[in-house]
Amino acid sequence: MRFDRYTVILLTLRPDAPVMTDDEAAELQDRHLAHGADLQDRGLVLARGPLADQDDERYRGFSVWSVDAATARRHAEADPAVRAGRLAVEVMTWMMPAGNLQFSQVRAPRSIAEATAD
Questions:
Q1: Which among 13, 24, 22, 19 is positioned nearest to 87, based on CA atoms?
Q2: What span, in angstroms and rounded, lies between the C-alpha atoms of 103 and 96?
Q3: By the 8 A CB rule, do 111 and 36 touch?
Q4: Closest by alpha carbon to 95, among 2, 11, 27, 6?
Q5: Which pLDDT value is given to residue 118?
Q6: Domain 3-100 falls in which CATH fold?
Q7: Does residue 87 contact residue 12 with C-beta atoms inside 8 Å?
Q8: Consecutive sets of 10 residues in the chain, 118 residues long: mean pLDDT of each?
Q9: Which residues of 40-72 are buried (b: 16+ CB within 10 A; e: fewer)?
């Protein structure tokens, strides 16, 4: 049986994340979203998004990448929220029977305002 392999990144809230004002956190989130949208526009990220209703609140985001683990890690570690010490990056390879998933290119939100617009 053939298997497709994808790099998966889990973003977690660091236990030593800096305390930020609401304005600082919103500005950082906008830069985080724009960074991810750029990676998605370039085809490096196939799908990404926040996690909700999780058992562990440290888990913040999940992404599926089209590139090898080292390349994905390098780009994920350049994320402004990671560089600011708010989020940590966990990288792994995800395998499934070939053809099990298909991804469509969609426009990703570049800011909180875009993400919450109707």
A1: 13
A2: 14
A3: no
A4: 6
A5: 76
A6: Alpha-Beta Plaits (3.30.70)
A7: yes
A8: 97 97 98 98 97 96 98 98 98 96 93 92
A9: beeebbbbbeeeeeeeeeebbbebbbbbeeeeb
